[in-house]
Write a structure and sequence with these properties.
Elements: H1 3-13, E1 23-27, E2 33-36, H2 38-44, E3 63-66, E4 69-76, E5 79-86, H3 98-122
Antiparallel strand pairs: 1-2, 1-3, 3-4, 4-5
């Protein structure tokens, strides 16, 4: 797979083009972080890489950044690719309670209590 061609195609799939890219961030192998331009990316990304299962071939710290969006690399079970991300939308303010924040944890507690109660009855 050619990284540059893959990236341009993925931008198109998300209604973006190279002209929408503001900058690119990456953590280098020495641990330092740098930013660079789309033009520099084009110079270094025309490499072929293996797309089969195995280890991640493309540096997973790369972010291609636009206005309120960015691309991130993902790796799952030996495959890799781009993910399109956007800044979360702000919703209309409304009432919120602590139950709204801990709902899942509370549901787990209730389930655990119900199981304990059932076990006591069956014993």
């Amino acid at each position: 797979m050619n990284l540059l061609k893959e990236t341009i195609e993925f931008l198109k799939e998300n209604s973006k083009s190279p002209s929408d890219v503001l900058f690119i961030n990456i953590q280098k192998n020495d641990g330092s972080n740098i930013s660079f331009s789309w033009e520099k990316f084009c110079d270094i990304a025309s490499e072929q890489y293996y797309t089969g299962y195995g280890q991640q071939e493309v540096n997973g710290t790369i972010n291609i950044v636009g206005d309120n969006w960015w691309l991130e690399r993902y790796e799952y079970d030996g495959s890799e690719g781009w993910e399109f991300k956007t800044i979360p939308k702000i919703f209309k303010n409304g009432p919120v309670t602590n139950i709204d924040l801990i709902k899942l944890g509370l549901a787990r507690q209730i389930t655990s209590c119900e199981l304990s109660f059932r076990n006591m009855i069956l014993s």
